[in-house]
Amino acid sequence: AQKITQTQPGMFVQEKEAVTLDCTYDTSDPSYGLFWYKQPSSGEMIFLIYQGSYDQQNATEGRYSLNFQKARKSANLVISASQLGDSAMYFCAMRGLNDYKLSFGAGTTVTVRA
Amino acid sequence: NAGVTQTPKFQVLKTGQSMTLQCAQDMNHEYMSWYRQDPGMGLRLIHYSVGAGITDQGEVPNGYNVSRSTTEDFPLRLLSAAPSQTSVYFCASTNERFGANVLTFGAGSRLTVL
Asked: Which of A9, A44, A67, B70 would you label with B54, given CA atoms 20 to 30 Å apart?
């Protein structure tokens, strides 16, 4: 069984600043994948970034980077140079590497202020 | 490309009524799944399928039935709706079991049970 914990229900960030969203996880799988999804107010789920547990380097995708600390079982999302369009709910998720099923955290709402 | 199509987008039911949420994908994806999203709880897996004729329970299956007679369709049935089933429902699919198997989500179906 996998458990994802996002302890920040909501955050405010000033436009152009960076923000870090916390995610910790627990799993008995030796290999796993970690994901971040964005859900804007329109409701759709948008994939942002993926990190495999055996990847040597932290994943980056444009302004998104994943601060992966395997020993601490954390996979924090960093959004650099925040934009107003980054205001959304963000979900951390994970699955075993040989599994289709994805487990989600409770989510963090980010509000970007002008 | 239609991707994952969910219908209806909105539905209001009375307690005890039955209904089916439809999900269709045109990407020949092997894996299909249903999630429900509730405030403060993230997305929770209801049922999933790894191919036609194969279904299995997720984290919160009670009160829901599914079937998978074709690769394309994965309907979710509520046999006797209860107010606790008021939620936003997402269908999601993927064809990748390994690596960054990003789920493609439908637009969601908002269900209210009175």
From this structure: A44
